[in-house]
Amino acid sequence: MEKMDPLGKIPLFASLPPTERQQLAGRALTRHYSAGEFIVLSEEVWPYLFLIQSGKVTAVKESYEGRSLVLTSIGAGEGFWGPSFFIENVPMPAGLLAEQDCELMLWSNQVMLPFLLKDGRLAWELAQMVMGRVLLASDIVEKLAFQSVAGRLARFLLDQSDEKKSGPISRDLTLDEMAARVGSTREMVCRFLHRFASDGLIDITRTEFSLIDRPRLEELANSVKG
Questions:
Q1: CA separation (Å) from 39 to 66, 81, 125, 126, 168?
Q2: Which of 145, 165, 188 is at the close of a domain?
Q3: pTM for the full model?
Q4: pLDDT truncated to tens, each residue of the chain (226 aa)?
Q5: Host H or E run for residue 196
Q6: DSSP 84
Q7: Following CA atoms 193, 68, 98, 1 in sequence, which dihedral angle do they give, to the nearest 10 degrees?
Q8: DSSP designation for 87
Q9: Do 44 and 119 lie in a common domain?
């Protein structure tokens, strides 16, 4: 049944009658991307709403100096959009990168608009999804503005530990990738990791991290710039 109604378990589309979900699924463009492949580049006009069927997509903002900032990661069952889906010819403020091998279902604004105009519940669900992303963007800006690099790195390590549930954290990310997630440089990330280790907050090996003093990391993560 799930293959016949691939949108049935997605909150955005759950309010639609099954026949309309099937119509939408039938009009979707299905695209596959390999890990490390860009789905769309920053500054491109891309009028699509998409749903991730499998894999993970990362929104990446790059500076003129070549530094990268990971804005958010989107997983299976979640959706995202280009701004020109709503406002014509508005370019992408960030690139979308396949963090893992991905399968996406895409709808242009021309395909989706009749459904949005017909069903107010679908438009409401989309508005809620957009607002969730706006609040996330606000949280990112707040952290960059008011939290130190050390605080952002401490929060990143704590979040990684929470995802792992228990035990050490594998060092799957390079220093550059970690820097992109905390809005800093590889040199600063390396410096603070070693400082955390020296201060007894974490233990580092070549392959993993272990959090030694979570309360002090939490205090650091919740601190603001002086």
A1: 19, 12, 24, 21, 33
A2: 145
A3: 0.69
A4: 445 778 888 888 888 888 989 999 999 999 999 999 999 999 999 999 999 999 999 998 887 666 778 888 899 999 999 999 999 999 998 999 999 999 999 999 999 999 999 888 889 999 998 888 888 877 777 777 767 888 889 988 888 887 666 678 888 888 888 888 888 888 888 988 988 998 999 898 888 888 999 899 988 888 866 5
A5: helix 186-198
A6: G
A7: 80
A8: S
A9: yes
In a domain, residue 13? The reply is no
Domain harbouring 26, CATH code: 2.60.120.10
CA 81 vs CA 42, 59, 121, 130, 226: distances in Å: 13, 11, 18, 9, 37
Quick one: 91 and 28 in the same domain?
A: yes
Q: Quote the CA–CA distance of 134 and 129 in Å, as a whole number.
A: 9
Note down the domain range covering 54. Answer: 18-145
Q: What is the CATH number of the domain that holds 164?
A: 1.10.10.10
Q: Are 196 and 218 in contact (CB under 8 A)?
A: no
- What is the Cα–Cα distance from 84 to 222, expressed in whole angstroms? 36
Question: What distance in Å separates the CA atoms of residue 10 and residue 29, rounded to the nearest whole number?
Answer: 17
